[in-house]
Amino acid sequence: MLILAGSIGALLGVIALVRHVGRNLAWLPEVQRKCVHIAIGLYALVLPWLFDSAWPIVLLILIALALMLYLRTPASRTTGLGSTIHAVERRSFGDVWLALAIGFVFLRSGDTYILYGLPVAVIALSDAAAALTGTTYGRSRFQLEAGVKSWEGVVAFFAVTWIVAMVMLLLLTDVPRLNVVVLGVAIAAFGAVVEAVSWRGLDNLFVPVCIHFFLAGYLYATPEALGLLALIFFPAVLAAAMLQRRLGLSAHASRAFLIAIFFFLGVSGLFGTILPLLVMGAHLIARRRNPCRGEHPDLDLIATLCGTGLIWYFVGESTERSGINLYNLAMTGILLAYVMIALGCDRRWALPAYVASLALYAGLIAVGPAYGRWVLWANWIAALSLALVLVTLLARSGWTERWRGPRIAAVASIVPMTAYLTQAVFR
């Protein structure tokens, strides 16, 4: 408890110190913000050695989240400590995403420190290097839906990540040296692409989580396997760039869709990727026939799908019971909603779309892994969940004009998550 209290005090002390020094030396707001970012990331690296159980770290992250939200209050962000990290004018929850990412990779890594330490070190050092390089030396800029980034920053991210990855892999693992070099390049390249397509501070979540899963899957992969992955990934990037106009996507959105597909393949395999792919296709059709008034609907959908997948993954890991089938039920509900939106929410198509969704879900259950079937109490759970989505959409069709993705996902997840948690607790 003393270490826990000292950690909170140290966090506040660092923010106050950076604010004081930044004012005296006339630091740019971005420099102050990144100094705090680096300090938090470096301190997070030693958390597994400070505590002998998980609950203090979870409690520390929850307290840090509450503190970050307080620093966002108008009084704090104008004249208080919050001005240190929120003086930069941007719509970003990067501080919140960083705390959540640290908690996720810590709980997911177990006793394998490299799966925790390397992702946290990358987001602490490489992300700061990219931001400061881009701010100071960035000349070749590319547009995102929510701002701009620079190629100089991307190069800085790649270089720092490669160095950090090789050093940590050499010191903390028994991976052969040739593999260290190749794996370091792969991690740096993949991380740089993820960082380049992230927006509104979501790189603080996406980068460490994606690198964590990449490491978990390829830590001891052979150079040949990594080379094959590169032969698949980079042509896919080129294909996305060539198809973006036909699909009506921006360059940023097309790359984000591609990263999301690889993310789902890496986390849940083909069985957990089929429905997100169908949702993406239905979204592209619905966006043309019945566009919403959201600012960036393509990116909102990607964030929604990835966030929904991470929540289900985290819940399944925490309770040690597979939630793959009920995760797919939630995704089926999202798919049904986008299909109905593409059809103009025409009531004549409601029953055929409902029956088709039930049949699709039943087919996935039939061919899916047996370990996930325990969560299906009866077919009426799927029927109830999809009916709730359909009734909500037909009753309030204008409800999805804004924040379409998050709202649909919330409704589609109510019944599956309730069923899952009920069985996880009482079984």
Question: What topology emerges from the helices and strands here?
Answer:
Elements: H1 2-25, H2 29-45, H3 47-50, H4 55-70, H5 74-79, H6 83-86, H7 94-109, H8 113-137, E1 141-144, E2 147-150, H9 151-172, H10 177-197, H11 203-218, H12 223-247, H13 251-268, H14 274-289, H15 297-319, H16 324-342, H17 350-367, H18 379-395, H19 404-426
Would you count the extended β strands for me?
2
- Low-confidence spans: 371-377
Biggest sheet descriptor: 2 strands, antiparallel
- Note the beta-strand portion: under 5%
Q: Into which percent range does the helicity of residues fall?
A: over 70%
Whole-number radius of gyration? 22 Å
**Total number of distinct structural domains:** 3
Provide a compact summary of the structure.
This protein is an all-alpha fold and 427 residues long. Helix content is 77%, strand content 2%. The chain has a two-stranded antiparallel sheet.
Please provide a written account of the structure.
- GO terms for molecular function: ATP-dependent diacylglycerol kinase activity.
- It comes from Allosphingosinicella deserti.
- InterPro entries: Dgk1-like.
- This is Phosphatidate cytidylyltransferase.
- The protein is built from 19 helices and 2 strands.
- It has 427 residues and is mainly alpha-helical.
- It folds into 3 domains: 1-89; 94-268, no CATH class; 280-427, no CATH class.
- The protein has a two-stranded antiparallel sheet.
- Helix 7 runs antiparallel to helix 8, helix 10 packs antiparallel against helix 11 and helix 16 runs antiparallel to helix 17 (350-367).
- The two termini are 34 Å apart.
